[in-house]
């Protein structure tokens, strides 16, 4: 059994009980980690706080990762409360809904900028802020998707962002490796999260994944949480710069 007692984990991206961030938070909490769980804004606070209250000892923090000022404020609060952190989970992605439907060629310039700022640059920004607090080394992880490699209709500009995100993971792994900070991505299969509902034909994606994956089903949040728990632990002490697929094997299939 993995024991994270004495470790502090910061989890970004909690929206509701369907969030992958929530599945990860539950697994880290069950392993004994102290949790700082971050939600985006005041509108999401009530639902997020209800979930956080189900994890005794966890604390909630508000932070919009598209704001450098809010990131700076958050990590000041984290330093004051925890002194150091060991694990950071970046479960954040966003693109305008109109850029997640129809033909990719119609992607707007603004939609492209927003998708990359919120979904990719934010990983750089929070990693930069977290690194000085990871005084005993640490594990940073983010969430990707198979569309970073292969065409998934309607995923559109978010696929560009996920490809950039995976590249970002490798560069951050190189930068932070000398500090014994590992950086990895989890490429989860499609899950019906709040963010995913904005993608056109999500139902078709879920059906195709379940039909074609070797395990003949879709993945759930807690299974992604299990992979995150592994990456957070010493069992993954030599794993960095990688993309770990948690998709019931879908990515290995040709057709």
From TrEMBL:
Active site: 145 (proton acceptor), 155 (proton acceptor)
Keyword check for Plastid: no
Alphabetized UniProt keyword annotations: Fatty acid biosynthesis, Fatty acid metabolism, Lipid biosynthesis, Lipid metabolism, NAD, Oxidoreductase
Gene3D superfamilies for this protein: Enoyl acyl carrier protein reductase, NAD(P)-binding Rossmann-like Domain
Molecular function terms, GO-annotated: enoyl-[acyl-carrier-protein] reductase (NADH) activity
Binding site for NAD(+): 13, 19-20, 40, 64-65, 92, 162, 191-195
InterPro entries: Enoyl-ACP_Rdtase_NADH, NAD(P)-bd_dom_sf, SDR_fam
Catalytic function, reaction form: a 2,3-saturated acyl-[ACP] + NAD(+) = a (2E)-enoyl-[ACP] + NADH + H(+)
Signal peptide boundaries: none
Broad enzyme group: oxidoreductase
Family indicated by similarity: Belongs to the short-chain dehydrogenases/reductases (SDR) family. FabI subfamily.
Alphabetized PANTHER family for the sequence: ENOYL-[ACYL-CARRIER-PROTEIN] REDUCTASE, ENOYL-[ACYL-CARRIER-PROTEIN] REDUCTASE [NADH], CHLOROPLASTIC
Name of the protein in its database record: Enoyl-[acyl-carrier-protein] reductase [NADH]
Native species: Occallatibacter riparius
